[in-house]
Structure formats: C-alpha cells, structure tokens
Amino acid sequence: MDLKFLGSGSAFNPAMENSNAYFAFGGKFYLLDCGETAFGRLWNNEAYSDSAEVVALITHLHADHVGSLGSLISYSHYVTGKKVTVAHPLDTIVRLLDLLGIDRECYRFRKLAESETYVFDEGLRVKPIPVEHVQNMKCFGYLLSDGREKVYFSGDAREVPGEIVEGLQDGSLARIYQDTSNKESDHPTHAHLSYLEEIIPPALRNRVYSMHLDYDYGELLRSKGFEVVRAER
Ligand SMILES: [Zn+2]
Ligand SMILES: [Zn+2]
C-alpha cells in the first residue's frame, strides 16, 4: 500500500497544499480526499492518466478535503472519459455535489457502511472508521488493505482509534498516516503532538506518518521519532 501525497499541509497552510493522497490498484486510481489544491495536482498526474477509473474515498466535507472534487468529477466525465466513484458513509456528499451543479449522471455514489469493510472489485478492502473531529460534522478515517499490507489514513481526527493503536502494536498495521497538530487549543480538532507522544511508544513511531501540518515542523517530529509524509512536487 504505497500511498503518495499531493500535499502535507493543513487547511490554513496552502503553501504545503492539502494532505490528500492517492494510490493505484487493480487498474483504478484511488484518491483519499480531494481538497482545494488537489485538482491542480491531479489533472495531469501520470497515475491518474494511466487509470481507467477513479475511486474517491472521502473522509469529511471540509474544503481542504473536498474543495476540488466537483472539478475532478467534471473533468473526468467530460474531458478524460474516466468513470468516477465517490465513496463515503453519508449522502451529504451527494447533496453538496448537487449544490455545486454536478449532475448525478457524472459519477457513481458508493455509500459505505460505518465501521464495515467494503471490498472493491479488485479485492481492495476499505473500512471507514468514525473519528472525532468537529461537533457539526462526522468524519471518518480509512483502514485500507490490498491483501499484502494494511494502512490507516486518519482524515481529520483528534484521536487515534483503539483498534488502530492495537494494530500498530501487534504488527498487523504497516503504517498510519495521522493529521498532527502542534498548536495549543481548548477545542482540539486534530491529534496533538503531545497526545501522540503519550499513546505511541518510541519503538512504533517510525510507522506513524504525520500530515496536515500547520507549518513545516518536520524536523521536530523526526527528532521525536515520527515520520512525516513527503508530498510529490
Ligand atoms: Zn483538514
Ligand atoms: Zn476537517
């Protein structure tokens, strides 16, 4: 499960672009979120161009996660002729795309069941796990397995779910990609670095990849044993 990143920044850090990721599997281009900066990286991306179909797995509806999804769907439908499937546990995404003027004929919606594994045609296993982020919107992390490796992509989440920490500990999970904050806040919406230091023992930190950074503090993260996602440029 080799996830590639289009960016590594948080919502208010456009310089590092949105922390959206992709991978190719079974001839399809799988996308983890499609934020405001994503389409500018995707329209001429080689893996996108080489794939017959696109599957967009969506964690939640904040703009740094879905801001250019409408453009990707329209471009794929009208210009490159690729079928797009949008996968999410809630149909709020369909209402959002309706309001953006994206015809339902231009994409397929795959409604995933919360906390249940869905198996795509080629055998890719995808499980959306509810995570705590903000009060007014549900958010989901994704547990992904290609049959060889399992990885976890957090979306935006204050905490790492228990089953994910256990998977890191028992070795069943190869890597996790976790939004990480280094800002003090009375109402945290992302996993704080000090929280990650508490729950992830040093020996496991080289399998924890921080993303969604408010500024470039990769050196600090690495000094504590964590990895940092590297965006393609
Ligand atoms: Zn975000
Ligand atoms: Zn968010």
Question: What does it look like?
Answer:
- The protein is α/β, with parallel strands linked by helices and 233 residues long.
- It has one domain: 4-Layer Sandwich (Metallo-beta-lactamase, Chain A).
- It is 24% helix and 29% strand.
- Strands 7, 8, 9, 10, 11, 12, 13 and 14 form an eight-stranded mixed sheet that branches.
- The radius of gyration is 17 Å and the shape is globular.
- The mean pLDDT is 97.
- One zinc ion binds next to loops.
What would you say about this model in short?
The protein has helices at residues 38-42, 46-50, 63-66, 69-80, 92-99, 162-170, 193-199, 218-223; strands at residues 4-5, 21-25, 28-32, 53-57, 83-88, 108-111, 118-119, 125-134, 137-145, 150-153, 175-181, 191-192, 208-211, 227-228. The protein has 233 residues and is of the alpha/beta class.
The unreliable regions are none
Q: Say how many strands there are.
A: 14
Number of helices: 8
Summarize the helix and strand pattern as letters.
EEEHHEHHEHEEEEEHEEHEHE
Named once each, the bound ligands are: zinc ion
Cα(first) to Cα(last) distance is 20 Å
Structural class: alpha/beta
For the record, the CATH architecture stands as 4-Layer Sandwich
> What percentage of residues falls in helices of 4 or more residues?
10-25%
Main sheet: strands, sense, barrel: 8 strands, mixed
Could you say which overall geometry the principal axes of the C-alpha atoms support? globular
CATH 4th-level superfamily: Ribonuclease Z/Hydroxyacylglutathione hydrolase-like
% residues in beta strands: 25-35%
Count of the separate structural domains = 1
What do the pLDDT scores average to? 97
What CATH calls the topology is: Metallo-beta-lactamase, Chain A
Radius of gyration: 17 Å
Give the CATH level 1 class.
Answer: Alpha Beta
